[in-house]
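If your schedule permits, I should be very grateful for your opinion on a structural question. The matter concerns a single protein, recorded as an amino acid sequence and a row of backbone structure tokens. Could you please explain, in whatever detail you think fit, how the structure tokens follow from the sequence? I set the record out below, with my sincere thanks for your time.

——
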Amino acid sequence: MKEIKTICVVGGGSAGSLSALTLKRLLPGRRVISLRAPNIPVIGVGESTTAYLPQFLHGQLKLDRAQFYKEVQPSWKLGIRFVWGPQERDHFNYPFSFELSERVGTLRKRAAYYHLQLGGTTGLLGALMDDDTAPIVAENGRYGMIDLPFGYHIDNQRFLAYLEKQATAFGVENVIATMTGVEKTETGDITALQLDDDRRIEADLFVDCSGFRSLLLKEQMGAQFQSFSPPLRCDTAVLGDIPRDGTIRPYTSAETMECGWCWKIELPERVSVGYVHSSDYISLEDAKAELRRKTPDLTEELRVVRFPSGRFDRFWIGNVAAMGNASGFVEPLESTALHVICEQLVSLCGALLDSDYRIEAAAQADANRRFAATWDAIRDFLAVHYKFNTRSDSQFWQDCRADTQLGDAEDIVRLYQEIGPHTAMKSVIGQERIVQFEGYLALLMGQQVPTCAKSHFDAQDLKDWKDWQARIAALRKKAVPLRRALDVVSRPDWTWN
């Protein structure tokens, strides 16, 4: 078991840049080389993240928040607004909080129980989403930040420029060239990459971030792709932008379309839009026309991305580990792409640190097992979105409701239907799933999946719920609009906690 001293990251983009920076930061003393081909176009969409990415960047990687905000100019994402579920309901919120699954204030039971029977607001984050405000409050001429989780909306090009600058500053070596071949041992490990300028890169570990081509994991190491279609039918996205209006909204929108769904990602200077659809149900031209009908202020230029939904059987084979699209991909309905990359990097780095920078078969197998479990859990969770969305009666959605298999989520949904938001759901969901109890509650309740749960509320329960509503109402009055909040935290006198 050779000690890993040199690591080569193959490919740029979010996966490559984030991988190079993370490996340099979390694996002390290792030489990290970033190999990027020249003139590879960047799609340039807005990226939407979970609440894990800010924790990863500023907690684990120790990247300065003030500098990040100055260079990347992110906007805050408090959750997802779903235009989804029953027609009679305008939307439901999926906030990045635990306001459904925890006992808050003086409530005897979880807020989910009260909301199911009494209605009302379950927590502050969802209220801020409805108000288009941020977790920044103004009181007596002073501003303060409420400790609530949030993700980012970020421009891809600014994000990449920032990551590459940080990686270089921490000592990552950059090589701009095209890989033309590989050199391997008799046992199949890669020893070096051949480049188009006659140079070679020798390394002990290669990290494949080459996107859907998967140049090393698939082409060289023979990983087998496992499709997620079905249950996930969508395979194409039409991308565009909307000019910014006056309001920056603190959420990603996911709106039901005839043959899929449309995202809106709120950036400070524009709104990124994408229609994710199935080419089996609608032509590309008809998809573009539908998107323009829904968003008449869409800019003229539209881009098209085709993608496979699925994962490889392993992300780490021999001395090759793949990140991002080179290892797996699902449509961004829950904004999990960057989240999974970060988790894979933590898994890889942890395995190497505990093994004194050597590849141990048992640790590698465990990392691959967790990788597969994570992707399969995301697949099953996305399937729940399609199974219970009743907003459209198009053939696409009829087929989704009739034929979508839920995998391991079947038991989770069944338990919710029988006993509602009960703590027993936690044991069925398990601890390794990327989506936990709160996420399932937000989705099942938001889509109004029927449940037999029925609670008896006495006078004290009703008073406590009323008091909780009043507490939320008082706080939301102090919150400021998102644009104003972003201006506040960019001031020289602002201090991050």
